[in-house]
């Protein structure tokens, strides 16, 4: 479906178009899997979240507000996936099965983000402690709440708030 963007695909999915759904999946599933794997190293959880996400897209495509409401189809899809991942973490926490820790290697998206924001901001982001950078990424880039970030990172909400404050202070000092 050349010439059709993701928003148009979501609108077609809302009308029950299977081909549009397949095309949306083909275009978005590779980067979505990569982003989820950056936050969870358990391939089974990632597979479950992917399945739940695309099922939610199929069922709820009609609720997509679109660019007129200030959103993008890709952003909408990521929001669904991020919330499904938090739900998976909650389910695992209830069953006392801890998830493997995220991989310590820097992600390509972190490097691209740092480069895209300029040398000074990129340097400030690179200089942040990993735990502070994780909180900023979850809350600012992924748009998660304090509670969702706490579940995602496996730390108390108070710790998330403290790390977010420390990250803001460190960024402000580095940029002044």
Automatic annotation (TrEMBL):
The keyword Flavoprotein does not apply. One of its GO terms (biological process) is DNA-templated transcription initiation. The keyword Transcription regulation applies. GO terms for molecular function: DNA binding; sigma factor activity. Residues 123-170 form the RNA polymerase sigma factor 70 region 4 type domain. Keywords: Sigma factor, Transcription, Transcription regulation. Residues 24-94 form the RNA polymerase sigma-70 region domain. Pfam families: Sigma70_r2, Sigma70_r4_2. PANTHER family: RNA POLYMERASE ECF-TYPE SIGMA FACTO, RNA POLYMERASE SIGMA-70 FACTOR ECF SUBFAMILY. Belongs to the sigma-70 factor family. ECF subfamily. NCBIfam families: sigma70-ECF. This is RNA polymerase sigma factor.
